[in-house]
Structure formats: C-alpha cells, structure tokens
C-alpha cells in the first residue's frame, strides 16, 4: 500500500509509450485551476479516478527530505467528513482498490471502482483535496509504517540503497540529490507547521490534475466533477477555509483580523455577513504561487568512485551518467540506445556479459528520465570469482562500441519493432491510460502526446543514437559504485 | 431585459448550487452494471490438443498459452528436474542457436517464455506468423545443448546457496515437504539432486511431458475464431506425442495432533511462522467459493481480516499476518502466518491457533461477511478487464469439468453465502487440532514452542526440508576417541612415543592461499606457533593486513581493519591457556577442558564422532571420521547478545609433514560468506620472527 517509486520494474516501463489506436479524451480547466481529463471507454464496467499533484521529493526543503512521500501516507488517514481509517475501507467495501505513489516530481493517487461507484471516487478525492485531516495518532502510526517500508525496501533489500547512493553523487546541487524515501531523522523532526504549510502550498486545485477513465456517462461525470470540485474555494480562499477549520478563534482573529463567528460554519463560502464575504473575495483573488524547481543543466565533474558495503552475497557494480530531462528532444534517441544495449535477451549487454562471458548473474542498463534532468545507469551483479573491474571493462567496451560505430540495420529494425510492441502494451488497463494522460499533460504540456509519441520515436536515426552515445556516455564524467559484502 | 433575466438566473443557480454541496455524506452507488462475460470459442484438433479462443480487439496483440496436460510426477533423487527442464526449453532448437532464437524473438518485439509445463507467446497481430514459427520450432525441435545445460546448472547452484540464508524459502520448503510427503509437491531440489540430473534426463522429461494429448492452447486477443483455427492447424496440427502421464497424487500428511516443525536459522531476529495443513478440495468443488469467503475473513483479504487485526493492529507482533488458501487440481492446502520477532514467536502461534478456534466455533459477523462479499465482487469485476481472465474461465470450465454457467453465476453464488455456511466450511476444512506449525528461526525460540506439539517432540528439518539426521550413541569413550585421533595425526603408537616425538617440534608455520566468491581479491593466511604456547596469525591481501592475532602465553591481542586492535579479554586468555600445544587435544585432560562425545552423526555420507567442546566464549563441535579418526569438520557457535554466529570449517587433503599429518585444504564458512583454499607451505622447526606482532 502506498508505494514508493523505486523499483527497477517501474523505472524500465519507459514511462510513456503509446498505442496504435488513438486514445480519445476531453480536457478542460475548472475555474479554481483543476485540470480535468476524461477518457470514456465501456469495455469493462469499471472506472479509474486519479489525482496527480505536481509535487514530489524535489520540492522538499533539504532539512525535511522524505516529506512528500510521508505526506502521501498521511492523506489516507481521513478528512473533515471521513473518520480515521475509513478512507481505504470505503473503497474496499465497495469493491474497489486504491493506491498512491510518490516520485521526485509528483504524487499520484488513484481508485479503481465498479463504474456505479464513480461518484464515491470523486467524493473521496475531493475530500482529500479540500480538507484532509490528520491527528497525532495518524502521524505517529504512519511514521512507523514508513520506517518499516524503508527497512523492507531499502535497508533490508540487497543493493537496495544503490538508488539513493547514485542520485546523491550524480545530482550535487539539484534536489534530486535525495531519494523520495528521504531521511527518517527528518521525518522525526517534522513539526505541525511543516504539515500545514506543505498542504497549503502544494495540495491546491491549481496544482492538481484530475483524470477519470473508463465506463462512465460523460455528462453525468462532468456534473459530479462540478459539484465536488468546482465548488472548492479559489486561490488563497481555500487556505482561508483551511485556517478556519484548523485555528481557534483567537489565532484566526489574530491572523485575519476577523472573528471566526462572522463566518457561516456550515457553509463557509456562502457566509452571509458582509465582512466575511469581503475577506473570502479578497483571498479568492490571491493566487497560490507554487514554487517550481529549475532544470539541472550542470555536468558531472570528473569520475567519482566509491565502495559501499552491504548485506549481500555477490559484489555488484553501478555506473551513473548525467542525462537530459525527459522532455529533451534527445531523450528518444537515448531510450533507443538503451534498448540496443539492454532491451531483451538478445541485447548487447546480456549476450556478452551474462551469457557469453558469464561474468555477471545480472547485467543491464536503464534510463531514468525526470522533469528536471535524467540519469543513465549501468548495473551488474558479479558472477562468482569475477572482479568488478573486469565487468566495468566489458561495460566500457560496449560503450566504446556504440560510440564508435553505427548500430546495424538489423538492430535498428529490431528496436523499432520492440518499441512499437511496448507502446501497445501500456494501454491495456484503464488505470494505466489515466496515469499516462495525466503525466503527458503535466510534464509535456500536451495530453495528446499519448497519441503522437510513437512518431517521435520513429524519427530517431542510427546517427542520432551514435551522437547521443558520444554526448552523454561521458567516460571522464560519471559515478562508479562498487557494492561489496559487509564483513560478518 | 431577456439578457438580464438570464444572467440573474445564472447567478441564482450558481449561488444555490454552492449552497447545496453536501460533503458530509458518502455518495450512494448508482445502478450496478450488468457484468457480461464474453464467450470463448473452443475446438479440438485431431491430435488431441484443445484450443480456446477469447477474442478482444482492444489492442493489436495476440497471445498463445500452451499448457500440457500431464500430472506432476515424483522425481526422487532427481528432485527439481522438471524446473530445470523448463528453464532450458528456450536454449535453442535444431536449426536455431540460442543467440539466433533470442534475436528473432526480439526482432519482432515478442515475448516467448517457457516453464516446466507450458510455452507462452505474445506479439503484435502483424507478427503472428513469425511468432508462431518460433514457438512451434521450440515445441518440436528444442535442442538442449550441453553448454547451456552447464550454464543453467551453475545458476541453480548459486540459487541453492542463497536458500540456506533465506528464511522464506526455508519455510516454503518445510511446508511442502510436511504437507505433501510422497507427492511431487513435496519434492525440493537440493545440491545432491541438482548434481544428479543429467542432460539426458532433461531430454526425456521434455519428450514425455510435452505432448498434444490432454494439452490446451489458449489464444487471446486480436484474432477471430476462423483465423485461430487456421493457425492452430498450421502450426500445431501435425504435432504428435505420447499419451499423458498420470500419477498417484494421494500423498497427504495425516496428523494425530499438532506437529511443530523447526528449521534453524542461526542469528535470526525474527521467526517465519506458518500454520499449515492440506485440504481435501479440488477446483470447482461446490465448497470452493464459501471456503474462499471463510479464508477472506480469516486472513486472506486486505487490512480488515481477523489475523491482521489481531496480530498487527492490536498486538503489533508483526508487519503483516495473512492466510493463503491454495486450491489446485493436484493438491490443496492452507498456510497462515508471517514474520514475528523472536520474543513473541510463541505468543503469535497461540494467537493464530486461537483465531482458528474462534472462527470454527463462532459465527462470523454480518459486517465481516458483507465486506468480504463486496471485495470479492470487486476483484471479480476488475479481473474481467484482462482478456486472459476470460480464457482462464474457459480453461477451468473444461479442465475441471465445471458447470458451463459457473462464472456467469459466480457473483450470485457469493451473494447467497450465509454465516452458517461459512462456519460449516471452517468445521469441515480447518484442522484446528491437526496443524503443522512450521517455524524457521533462532534456536532460542525452540523451548518456547515445544508446548504446541501434541507429543512434545519437535521435528527438526534442514534448509531444504529434509530431516536433520539424528545422532546415534558413540561406541567409544571421549578419552579413547582423542587417543585414536592423536595416534593417527602424529603417526605414533603410544602416548609416550607421541610425547617424545612432539617434544622435538619447536615451531610450526602454515601459509594458506585463500579465495572467496564474495571477496574480489586473493587472500593469504599465515599461522605461526612456537613451543610451548606462543602463537600468531595474519590474513592479508593486496599488500594489506586485514586481520591479525597474537598470544605470547600470557597476553595478546586481536586486530582487524574494521574494529582496530583489541587486547584479549581475561576470558579469552583463559581459553588460550587451555589450548596449548600443536595438537591441543593432547592436553584436554591436563588443562581441564570441558568436552564430551555426543555420538555418531552422518556428515556428507560418512559417519563421524561428534565431540562437543565448551569453553568460556563459545561452543565447538568437532567431527572425527569414524573410519580414519581424522578431524574433518568443526563448527563453532558464538553468542553475542541477541545474535548467534555460526562458523564451520571443513578439512581435507591430509598429508604428512615431518612425520605429522596436517590437512592441506580448508573451506571455511560463516553466514553467507565462504572462503576456501590450500596450504602452500607447512613447515616444522623453521626459524620464526614474530617482531611484526610485538610492537
């Protein structure tokens, strides 16, 4: 439940490839800034509701790392109208499933429900967005749960720390420096105002994309969205409302120079007293400025080589290169290049390093594209009695080869076919479609990219692949990590 | 005027609209959709192959899932054969090397997988012919080359190694072995069985089991029945093979009372615990759905189950406690449990037993029943999104002889289940007093879990679920054993002769070259001894000394790169002082060493006397081969706080040096770490300079 964006499986899903069949959708903005995307499809009587908040670990302050992911856990706790612990139960009781994940760039929540429960899904997400509620017990429980999660997924997982260790060294100045799971000490140090501020700054309509996909009636869905989401306060009026709920009268009065009694508690936005109306109108006109991070254009400075001791049986090597952000035009050629090196059993790395030379039990490479920058990783777990240096030597030979000569026509066709197949695969589930629609809108500013992305891949030439290999696989600027068994 | 009315109207509507938003109540569901399950098409080829077609044109892809119909068979000394054969199936064909095959699959962007019982292909519709050409080539002409056999065997060796430190695999092995004796489910690959498997066994397995008779081909996706029929005939119509193999699959464990099965995992801080028992039910049985409902309430569902609520939310014994119900054609069983810290291992067993009891004796609540019904309802509906599900339904209906309306009426049958029926299932299937209680963990929990065993005798298994051999009584005394051992290694006939011979031995040096799969550099260990009781040793590699030790008869130190240099504690000095001489056994009696002979145990096929030596810091077990009296193995167990560290050494290649017998090969292991090597030098009475240890 509430999983982190950490597994290699997820990383390698190429993020965002698309189908041959066009995906139809409708999109529009609500007055308070929520972007809505609707995709209607009736093959199965189920519907997916998701909200993407454009906030991830890169928006954290360096003394509160892990906060975005921790906050995701807290937002399952309940709301003004949902008791603690009932959020998940309501979904499960009604035949649905739910989950969420947090990456460096965004936090994503979704429910998959029988289609007659669509309104329930919309209500649940609107509660989360408008007035989530977290008490001390919830915070303490989730703190332990997140710690267990870190033990299970990172500390207790062989090589589980490589992600953190690699990012720490590849991103020196950018907040990609730390992983979404973050620091447990930081979570312990978090204060109430941290929670309040994070919610007020990032969990706001203008930072949210609501997607509904599946078996629905378009007109009815729009009505419900209007009802539950358009009705949310605009701009800073939302945070005024949240303060109205959270602060006592004195504190509220002190902050806003107006007593809480002037507002209609049952119907805040429609408070009848003039002073209240004025204040709401004033705050509604103040936009919420969301602090964005900058693209990381810096280069790695030389070769960083480190040894990490872990509870493992076999040594492993990880090499990291700085790649451009996922929206960069070169990212298509880089993905192509990665397929040549590591896509499938017949790829160069698997054939040579794993099968022919039997130097590694696993060896692969993958690209990890993010909003502000990317990273290319080569990884291998050594076979018995094989040194990591000799594996690195083989990796380097493969890198030299792809830099010095064009890939063959056969390889080129093979990768084109493979990419085409992958693109089809990602459109098999309704939830998968919802997620890709939202990602394309938020990262690329074009929801319709789900339908055009294939063309971008098909434009890549053999020369492009050689060029990006030379440009980004910089042997004199990279990070090399050796994982060795801890001495017992 | 008209305009004004209009805008006023809008104003009115929007105001009252906001006023009406009532968020305080959970929305009611709309009218439930009727769930349509698409029909599959079924036909049979002349060679006996049954073909199931499930059309779905949402995306331009097709998959072909070919499953064999033979029963699983006992493999005996070759346990693991079928798995090994499955992983070799894609190693090439008569006309395609493995490289060519891999390349051609990747070239069309297809997936082609195989296991012991099936071959699976999925590809874009436009590549269907090429895909099937490759799939049927593997099916007809798989070539099983020796080089791939060697490579895959090596991979399996590493996997078996890691089993020994993986509590979850150990628990799984013990569970299947205990639940299913004399049944293929109860067979587990070991180092010995892997070693015994020959390439010819793999070929034979493939020939016998991959046959169209009784096999099923499920075709799912962007294809019509007519196309499917044509392709099935083209590619699989002329495939032939023997009759399906049937096997006796009745082997089940029958308990009289609860049994406690323990597997030792030195150093464990958590126990993996499963309460498990076989269940007499087959897929499609009328009781399958109500039994699934029962298990869902007990521990099979999400966060709201009884086990989760009691052992995690209430007692905080664990991160998760679940029960899994496995219903298969060839054998069914239930396992309930999870990971529990050592201190609460016994309480956890007691609570799970308690929950088993309650659900058998008391009716479940309406809330519980409704929650599981809704959640099963949702699971079922969501699963229909995948065309694979539809094909699986058709397969199950034919294979298990289900009513053709089985899945169409599935939801109605869930709905109709009553609390009384759920209790009936518990009474019928939950063996409250005949549980196998499997515990993989630290020895310290053993005493506390004995009480759950009906006869108080815990059964102890190894990592692969085999019984740890029992020790039989020794036929000689501890003094005799030492006497015979010393005679052999010193090549002497009497104590007097021995004393005289060893008096002449003033110094001893042994240098051993070592290597380890987990350490990337070669290592060298040097040991020194100077009469009567000075000793030193060091371990070095690539010019660095990783570890060293020194004892001058009254004081000394131990030093390693991580913790630095540490003086010997008073306890350690006492131990050193008792362990005098080149062969410390000579002075056991004189030095008052606490030792005993435990008996005779079979170690790797040879009977050995087991001697236990207990001192202030650790317990040592020495194994003397019964035929030769040579010391071939030692195990030392050290307890440091909560953690138990176990290290074992195996000695071989005994050769004479200056009339004394020394092992020249050693293999040492501790936890996941193994080091082994050969002595490159053993010398007696050479001059020794210990200056490097003395500063």
Please give a structural write-up.
Chain A is an alpha+beta fold and 488 residues long. Chain A contains 19 helices and twelve strands. Chain A has helices at residues 8-11, 67-74, 86-93, 118-131, 136-155, 162-170, 184-189, 192-202, 218-230, 237-246, 249-256, 274-284, 331-342, 348-356, 388-404, 409-425, 430-444, 449-458, 462-472, and strands at 3-4, 26-29, 35-40, 46-53, 97-102, 107-114, 208-214, 303-310, 316-323, 360-369, 374-382, 478-485. In chain A, the strands form two sheets. Chain A has a seven-stranded mixed β-sheet, with helices on both faces. With 695 residues, chain B is of the alpha+beta class. Chain B folds into three domains: 41-164 and 184-236, Metalloenzyme, LuxS/M16 peptidase-like (Cytochrome Bc1 Complex, Chain A, domain 1); 259-461, Metalloenzyme, LuxS/M16 peptidase-like (Cytochrome Bc1 Complex, Chain A, domain 1, 2-Layer Sandwich), CATH 3.30.830.10; 478-694, Clam (outer membrane lipoprotein receptor (LolB), chain A), CATH 2.50.20. Chain B contains 22 helices and 25 strands. In chain B, the strands form three sheets. A 13-stranded antiparallel β-sheet of chain B has the order 18-17-16-15-14-13-25-24-23-22-21-20-19, covered by helices on one side. Chain B has a six-stranded mixed β-sheet with strand order 1-2-6-3-5-4, sandwiched between helices. In chain B, a hairpin with a 2-residue loop joins strand 4 and strand 5. Chains A and B meet through helix 3, strand 6, helix 4 and helix 16 of A and helix 1, helix 3, helix 5, helix 13 and strand 14 of B.
Helix and strand content put the structural class of chain B at alpha+beta
**Main sheet overview of chain B:** 13 strands, antiparallel
Can you give the helix content of chain B as a percent range? 25-40%
Beta-strand portion of chain B reads: 25-35%
How many independent structural domains of chain A?
3
Helix content of chain A: 40-55%
Regions with little confidence, pLDDT below 50 for 5+ residues of chain A: 1-20
Largest interface, counted by CB within 8 Å of the partner chain's CB? A-B, 80 and 71 residues
Shape of chain A: globular
Strand tally of chain B is: 25
Number of DSSP strands of chain A?
12
CATH homologous superfamily label of the largest domain in chain B? Lipoprotein localisation LolA/LolB/LppX
Beta-strand proportion of chain A:
15-25%
Question: Biggest sheet of chain A: strands side by side, in what order?
Answer: 1-5-6-4-7-3-2
CATH architecture of the largest domain in chain A: 2-Layer Sandwich
CATH class of the largest domain in chain A: Alpha Beta
**What is the CATH superfamily label of the largest domain in chain A?**
Metalloenzyme, LuxS/M16 peptidase-like
The residue-averaged pLDDT of chain B reads 87
The CATH architecture of the largest domain in chain B is: Clam
């Amino acid at each position: 439940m509430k999983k982190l964006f950490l597994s290699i499986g997820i990383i390698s899903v190429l993020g965002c490839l698309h189908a041959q069949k066009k995906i139809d959708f409708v999109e529009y903005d609500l007055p308070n800034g929520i972007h809505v995307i609707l995709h209607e499809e009736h093959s199965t009587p189920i519907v997916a509701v998701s909200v993407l908040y454009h906030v991830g670990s890169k928006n954290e302050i360096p003394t509160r790392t892990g906060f975005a992911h921790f906050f995701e856990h807290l937002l399952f706790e309940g709301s003004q109208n949902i008791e603690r612990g009932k959020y998940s139960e309501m979904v499960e009781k009604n035949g649905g499933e739910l989950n969420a994940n947090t990456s460096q760039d965004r936090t994503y929540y979704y429910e998959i429900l029988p289609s007659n429960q669509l309104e329930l899904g919309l209500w649940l997400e609107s509660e989360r967005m408008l007035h989530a509620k977290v008490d001390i017990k919830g915070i303490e429980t989730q703190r332990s749960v997140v710690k267990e999660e870190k033990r299970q997924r990172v500390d207790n997982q062989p090589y589980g720390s490589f992600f953190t260790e690699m990012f720490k060294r590849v991103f020196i100045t950018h907040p990609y420096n730390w992983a979404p799971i973050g620091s447990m000490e930081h979570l312990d140090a978090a204060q109430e105002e941290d929670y309040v501020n994070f919610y007020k700054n990032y969990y706001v309509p203008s930072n949210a994309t609501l997607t509904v996909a599946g078996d629905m009636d378009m007109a009815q869905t729009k009505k419900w969205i209007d009802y539950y989401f358009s009705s949310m306060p605009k701009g800073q009026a939302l945070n005024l409302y949240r303060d109205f709920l959270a602060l006592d009268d004195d504190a509220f009065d002190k902050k806003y120079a107006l007593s809480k009694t002037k507002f209609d508690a049952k119907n805040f936005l429609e408070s009848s007293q003039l002073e209240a109306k004025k204040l709401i109108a004033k705050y509604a006109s103040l936009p919420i400025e969301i602090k964005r991070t900058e693209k990381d254009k810096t280069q790695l400075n030389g070769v960083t080589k480190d040894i990490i001791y872990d509870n493992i049986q076999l040594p492993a090597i990880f090499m990291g290169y700085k790649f451009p952000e996922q929206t960069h035009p070169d990212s298509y050629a880089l993905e192509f290049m990665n397929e040549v090196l590591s896509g499938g059993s017949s790829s160069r790395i698997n054939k040579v390093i794993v099968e022919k030379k039997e130097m590694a039990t696993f060896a692969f490479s993958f690209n990890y594209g993010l909003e502000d920058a990317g990273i290319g990783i080569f990884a291998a777990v050594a076979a018995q009695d094989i040194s990591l240096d000799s594996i690195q030597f083989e990796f380097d030979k493969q890198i030299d080869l792809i830099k010095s000569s064009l890939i063959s026509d056969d390889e080129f066709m093979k990768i084109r076919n493979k990419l085409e197949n992958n693109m089809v695969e990602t459109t098999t589930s309704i939830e998968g479609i919802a997620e890709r629609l939202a990602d394309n809108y938020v990262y690329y500013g074009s929801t319709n990219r789900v339908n055009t992305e294939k063309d971008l891949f098909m434009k890549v030439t053999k020369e492009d692949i050689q060029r990006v290999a030379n440009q980004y696989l910089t042997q004199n600027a990279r990070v090399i990590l050796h994982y060795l068994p801890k001495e017992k | 005027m008209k305009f004004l009315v209009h805008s006023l109207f809008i104003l009115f509507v929007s105001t009252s609209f906001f006023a009406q938003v009532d968020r305080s109540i959970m929305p009611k569901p709309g009218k439930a959709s009727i769930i349509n399950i698409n029909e599959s098409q079924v036909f049979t080829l002349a060679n006996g192959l049954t073909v199931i077609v499930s059309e779905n044109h949402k995306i331009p892809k097709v998959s072909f899932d070919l499953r064999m119909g033979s029963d699983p068979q006992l493999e005996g000394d070759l346990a693991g054969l079928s798995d090994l054969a499955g992983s070799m199936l894609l190693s090439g064909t008569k006309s395609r090397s493995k490289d060519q095959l891999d390349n051609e699959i990747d070239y069309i962007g297809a997936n082609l997988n195989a296991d012991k019982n099936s071959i699976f292909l999925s590809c874009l519709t436009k590549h269907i012919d090429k895909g099937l050409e490759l799939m049927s080539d593997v099916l007809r002409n798989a070539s099983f080359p020796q080089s791939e056999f060697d490579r895959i065997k090596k991979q399996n060796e590493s996997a078996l190694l890691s089993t020994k430190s993986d509590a979850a695999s150990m628990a799984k092995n013990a569970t299947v072995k205990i639940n299913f004796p004399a049944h293929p489910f109860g067979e587990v690959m070991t180092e010995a069985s892997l070693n015994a498997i020959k390439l010819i066994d793999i070929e034979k397995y493939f020939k016998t089991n991959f046959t169209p008779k009784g096999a099923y081909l499920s075709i799912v996706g962007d294809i019509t029945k007519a196309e499917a029929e044509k392709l099935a005939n083209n590619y699989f119509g002329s495939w032939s093979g023997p009759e399906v193999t049937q096997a006796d699959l009745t082997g089940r464990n029958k308990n009289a009372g609860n049994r406690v099965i323990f597997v030792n995992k030195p150093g464990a801080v958590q126990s993996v615990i499963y309460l498990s028992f076989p269940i007499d039910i087959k897929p499609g049985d009328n009781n399958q759905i109500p039994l699934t409902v029962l298990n869902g309430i007990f521990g099979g569902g999400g966060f709201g189950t009884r086990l989760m609520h009691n052992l995690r939310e209430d007692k905080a014994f664990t991160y998760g406690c679940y029960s899994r119900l496995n219903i298969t054609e060839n054998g069914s069983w239930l396992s309930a449990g999870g990971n529990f810290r050592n201190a609460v291992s016994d309480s956890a067993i007691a609570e799970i037993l308690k929950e088993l009891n309650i659900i058998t004796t008391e009716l479940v609540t309406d809330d519980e029943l409704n929650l599981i019904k809704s959640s099963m309802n949702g699971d079922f509906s969501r699963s229909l999104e995948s065309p694979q599900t539809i094909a699986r339904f058709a397969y199950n209906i034919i294979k298990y002889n289900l009513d053709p309306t089985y899945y169409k009426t599935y939801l109605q049958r869930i709905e109709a289940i009553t609390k009384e029926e759920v209790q009936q299932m518990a009474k019928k299937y939950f063996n409250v007093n005949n549980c196998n209680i499997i515990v993989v963990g630290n020895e310290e929990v053993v005493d506390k879990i004995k009480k759950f065993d009906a006869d108080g005798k815990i059964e102890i298994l190894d990592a692969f679920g085999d019984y740890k051999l029992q020790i039989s009584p020794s036929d000689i005394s501890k003094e005799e054993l030492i006497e015979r051992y010393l005679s052999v290694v010193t090549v002497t006939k009497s104590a007097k002769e021995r004393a005289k011979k060893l008096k002449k031995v003033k110094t001893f040096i042994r240098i051993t070259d070592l290597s380890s799969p987990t350490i990337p550099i070669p290592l060298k260990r040097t040991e020194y001894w100077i009469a009567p009781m000075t000793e030193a040793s060091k371990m070095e590699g690539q010019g660095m000394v990783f570890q060293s030790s020194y004892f001058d008869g009254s004081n000394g130190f131990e030093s390693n790169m991580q913790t630095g240099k540490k003086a010997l504690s008073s306890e350690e000095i006492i131990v050193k002082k008792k362990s005098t001489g080149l062969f410390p056994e000579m002075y056991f009696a004189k030095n008052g060493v606490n030792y005993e002979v435990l008996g005779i145990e079979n170690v790797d096929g040879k009977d050995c006397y087991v001697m236990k030596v207990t001192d202030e810091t650790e317990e040592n077990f020495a194994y003397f081969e019964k035929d030769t009296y040579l010391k071939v193995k030692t195990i030392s167990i050290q307890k440091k706080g909560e953690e138990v560290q176990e290290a074992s050494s195996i000695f071989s290649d005994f050769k004479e040096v200056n009339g004394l017998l020394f092992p020249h090969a050693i293999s040492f292991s501790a936890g996941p770490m193994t080091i082994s090597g050969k002595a490159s030098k053993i010398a007696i009475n050479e001059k020794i300079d210990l200056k490097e240890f003395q500063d």
